[in-house]
């Protein structure tokens, strides 16, 4: 075996065989950056005759990977090219629409290290949901019939000439390179279907054991192909039928009569007819698809019989000439390396792309930045439809359906509202599922809606509570709620008490500003533990220049942008009162208001409707745009096209919207409240108005509208300030100390019990 880093781990070659799947291939390649393996591995991509952007995707990864070509649309030929190129001790195959979990190679390697007789190893495969399994254990007989019912591995069936043998799914299979070369690699008659089954059978017949692992997980996302459509109905069945007949004649005639083989063939053909008829009835296949099937089946039977009786062609396996043609040198792939990497779980009911609020954006930026440092990061968030798991920019995002959860006695005694408990307890259940195959180091959850309460009461893992605007400050801007005694008794008072418990009993507390710490201590009447509280300013990922290209929009107008919900806490009432003052002084100004404008104001009408009605006769009304909620790309364009950004909140624990504007060089206007003064330096990168003061806000806007030089100066200062203090990388680096504090505190508490 090739000598690896610590002299004891075999080297791997990961082979991807791809054809017209550039978009998903990119995701598969990205996932390798988070593989945790104590040895070395290389990546080989063999591209078929693709006509999409696959070649460009592969080129973007050079020289980190090795690239090969296969001139025909034949998976076995492509796999053999990969085998000939490979220089690792073990060749691991993964589909171009699949993603491995970080421990994949490590767990595969352990099976080879335990027993030198092992020649092939594979693990479990999740289906497209990432939540349920497509494949666990399988056995196949000499007719190519699969049995997927076993609940355990069957190593006792790994012996030469066994009538039924262990099977590995092609998208998660590995083989000793020497064993593959010994049997000649893949039989190139199998352009698709039964290709890996034939190899597994020949590996067993060559005297090797096949290891079936209950881990080494791969997520298979089922990208469409020329065989399978978007709805996963098989449209092109020629290779399936032809290869099934070829396989039976190749492997079953030694054990069964030709009549029995033909009976199996007839039974299989009828099953194909039945399946096509069902798919046609369900409108998954068209009339043309059915006609094509009938033609393909006739041809497949003819060719399958002919090839089956002829046997394997001499040039249908790997030859010395092929090996020499594709020879090369081992090229170690360099994943993200962090010797102190942790497994971190962030809980955030709201998460992009469906949500763009402050907590959602913070969670996404933190998660992705932590992943870029090499941590294994999971985000547990809400799903409106089905449970599913996806790897998104290096983050395992678990979108789970909210379920009714019985409150524990501790939750009942604290009067945790049922809907609050349902989400927190659902997230806890998902964390427990993650922990079944990966050790969790730290959980982090926001104070808003007490999302971490089930974790605090459970106590299984260190818990970090992140501070954002709390219920107390929300109630302050909704006085009607504090006046509602029934609401306060059933929700307000219990939640305020839960917030207090989470802030005092969490293993560590993340504060995004000094102001939020001081304001909370004053409002709730306690002091945060100094040893477990850290101020870590929010950070954001930089944004690609192309995504925020400024278009020729300006003319003579100065564009003022507001982003936020249209509600009192965000100061929308103050801004709407200030707009007429600004328009009178500066008629060329244009205002764009982005955010949910469906929320009712004090009189029951929305702020948008009330404003439009009140000023319906004003000539300047056409200069005011209520844009509503925007998708991310449109929001980036709105920031790019703005000249001034304004967010006159009565309170913000931090104010991520200011960072969004600063990172594209825009001057900002906020208020002297909460954490805003820690982001906006008055007179440097923007201006601060007095919270709730219409005239103060109007004068700040007019000051910036009147001076292009001042806008440019403050915009440049804002961009510099963002780059020095508020990047996502800086936030993630500072989070490391926070997680160490939480881990130590949790360990100390456990030891004291």
Task: Give a short summary of the structure.
It contains 26 helices and 28 strands. It has about 750 residues and is of the alpha/beta class. The protein has 3 domains: about 325 residues, Spore Coat Polysaccharide Biosynthesis Protein SpsA, Chain A; about 190 residues, Rossmann fold (3-Layer(aba) Sandwich); about 180 residues, Rossmann fold, CATH 3.40.50.
Notes on the structure:
With 753 residues, this protein is an alpha/beta fold. The protein folds into 3 domains: 12-325, Spore Coat Polysaccharide Biosynthesis Protein SpsA, Chain A (Alpha-Beta Complex), CATH 3.90.550.10; 343-535, Glycogen Phosphorylase B (Rossmann fold, 3-Layer(aba) Sandwich); 547-726, Rossmann fold, CATH 3.40.50.2000. The protein has 26 helices and 28 strands. It has an 8-stranded mixed sheet. Strand 23 (558-563), helix 19 and strand 24 (589-594) form a beta-alpha-beta unit. It is elongated and about 95 Å long. Mean pLDDT is 93; it is low at 1-7, 225-229 and 545-549.
Keywords:
single chain; 753 residues; alpha/beta; Spore Coat Polysaccharide Biosynthesis Protein SpsA, Chain A; Rossmann fold; 3 domains; 7-stranded mixed sheet; elongated
Sequence-ordered SSE layout with sheet pairings:
Elements: E1 12-18, H1 22-31, E2 41-47, H2 54-61, E3 66-69, H3 75-85, E4 90-94, E5 98-100, H4 104-114, E6 118-122, E7 125-126, E8 133-135, E9 138-141, E10 146-147, E11 164-167, E12 172-176, H5 177-183, H6 195-205, E13 209-212, E14 218-220, H7 238-251, H8 258-281, H9 287-310, H10 320-325, E15 343-347, H11 358-372, E16 376-383, E17 388-392, E18 395-401, H12 409-413, H13 418-435, E19 442-446, H14 453-458, E20 463-466, H15 471-476, H16 479-482, H17 485-505, E21 508-511, H18 514-524, E22 533-535, E23 558-563, H19 572-585, E24 589-594, H20 607-614, E25 624-628, H21 632-641, E26 644-646, H22 656-662, E27 668-671, H23 676-679, E28 686-689, H24 694-705, H25 708-725, H26 728-752
Parallel strand pairs: 1-2, 1-4, 2-3, 6-13, 7-14, 15-16, 15-19, 16-18, 19-20, 20-21, 21-22, 23-24, 23-26, 24-25, 26-27, 27-28
Antiparallel strand pairs: 4-12, 5-14, 6-12, 7-8, 9-10, 9-11, 17-18
Helix pairs in contact: 1-2, 7-8, 7-9, 8-9, 11-26, 19-24
């Amino acid at each position: 075996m090739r000598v690896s880093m610590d002299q004891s781990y075999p080297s791997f070659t990961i082979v991807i065989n791809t054809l017209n799947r550039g978009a998903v291939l990119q995701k598969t390649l990205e996932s390798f950056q988070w593989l945790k393996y104590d040895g070395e591995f290389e990546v080989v991509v063999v591209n078929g005759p693709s006509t999409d952007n696959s070649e460009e995707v592969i080129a973007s990864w050079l020289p980190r990977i090795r690239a090969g070509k296969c001139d025909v649309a034949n998976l076995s030929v492509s796999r053999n090219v990969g085998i000939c190129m490979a220089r690792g001790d073990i060749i691991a195959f993964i589909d171009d629409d699949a993603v491995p979990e970080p421990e994949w190679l490590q767990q595969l390697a352990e099976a080879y290290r335990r027993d030198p007789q092992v020649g092939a190893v594979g693990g479990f495969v999740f289906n497209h949901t990432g939540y349920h399994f497509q494949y666990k254990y399988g056995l196949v007989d000499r007719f190519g019939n699969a049995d997927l019912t076993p609940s355990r591995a069957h190593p006792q069936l790994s012996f030469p000439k066994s009538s039924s043998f262990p099977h590995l799914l092609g998208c998660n299979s590995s083989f000793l390179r020497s064993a593959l070369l010994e049997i000649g690699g893949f039989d190139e008659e199998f352009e698709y279907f039964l290709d890996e089954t034939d190899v597994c059978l020949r590996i067993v017949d060559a005297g090797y054991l096949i290891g079936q692992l209950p881990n080494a997980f791969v997520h298979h996302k089922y990208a469409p192909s020329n065989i399978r459509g978007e709805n996963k109905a098989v449209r092109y069945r020629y290779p399936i039928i032809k290869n099934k007949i070829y396989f039976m004649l190749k492997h079953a005639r030694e054990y069964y009569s030709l009549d029995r083989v033909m009976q199996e063939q007839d039974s299989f053909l009828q099953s194909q007819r039945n399946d096509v008829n069902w798919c046609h009835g369900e409108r998954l296949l068209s009339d043309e698809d059915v006609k094509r099937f009938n033609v393909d089946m006739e041809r497949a039977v003819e060719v399958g019989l002919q090839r089956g009786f002829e046997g394997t062609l001499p040039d249908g396996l790997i030859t010395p000439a092929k090996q020499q043609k594709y020879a090369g040198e081992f090229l170690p792939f360099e994943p993200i390396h962090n010797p102190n990497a942790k497994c971190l779980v962030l809980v955030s009911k709201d998460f992009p792309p469906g949500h763009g609020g402050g907590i959602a954006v913070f969670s996404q930026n933190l998660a992705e930045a932590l992943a870029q440092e090499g941590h294994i990061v999971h985000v547990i968030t809400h799903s409106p439809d089905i449970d599913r798991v996806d790897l998104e920019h290096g983050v395992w995002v678990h979108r789970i359906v909210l379920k009714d959860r019985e409150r524990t006695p501790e939750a009942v005694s604290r009067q945790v509202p049922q809907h609050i408990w349902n989400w927190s307890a659902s997230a806890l259940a998902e964390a427990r599922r993650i922990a079944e195959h990966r050790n969790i180091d730290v959980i982090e959850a926001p104070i808003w809606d007490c999302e971490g309460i089930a974790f605090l009461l459970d106590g299984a893992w260190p818990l970090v509570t992140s501070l954002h605007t709390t219920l107390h400050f929300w109630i302050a801007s909704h006085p009607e709620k504090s006046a509602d005694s029934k609401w306060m008794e059933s929700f307000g008072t219990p939640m305020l008490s839960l917030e207090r418990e989470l802030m005092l009993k969490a293993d560590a507390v993340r504060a995004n500003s000094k102001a939020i710490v001081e304001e909370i201590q004053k409002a709730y009447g306690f002091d945060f533990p100094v040893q477990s509280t850290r101020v870590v300013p929010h950070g954001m990922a930089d944004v690609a220049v192309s995504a925020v290209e400024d278009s020729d929009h300006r003319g003579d107008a100065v564009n003022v942008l507001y982003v936020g919900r249209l509600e009192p806490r965000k100061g929308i009432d103050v801004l709407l009162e200030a707009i007429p003052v600004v328009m009178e002084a500066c008629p060329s100004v244009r205002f764009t208001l982005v955010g949910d404008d469906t929320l009712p104001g004090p009189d029951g009408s929305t702020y948008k409707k009330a404003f439009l009605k009140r000023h319906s006769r004003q000539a300047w009304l056409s200069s005011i745009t209520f844009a509503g909620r925007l998708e991310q790309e449109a929001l980036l364009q709105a920031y790019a096209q703005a000249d001034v950004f304004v967010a006159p909140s009565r309170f913000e624990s931090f104010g991520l919207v200011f960072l969004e504007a600063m990172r594209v060089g825009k001057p900002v206007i906020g208020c002297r409240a909460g954490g805003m003064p820690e982001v906006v330096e008055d007179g440097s990168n923007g201006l601060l108005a007095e919270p709730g003061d219409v005239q103060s806000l109007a004068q700040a806007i007019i000051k910036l509208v009147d001076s292009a030089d001042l806008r440019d100066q403050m915009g440049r200062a804002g961009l510099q300030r963002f780059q020095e203090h508020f990047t996502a990388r800086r936030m993630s680096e500072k989070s490391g100390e926070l997680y160490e504090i939480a881990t130590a505190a949790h360990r100390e508490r456990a030891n004291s019990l």
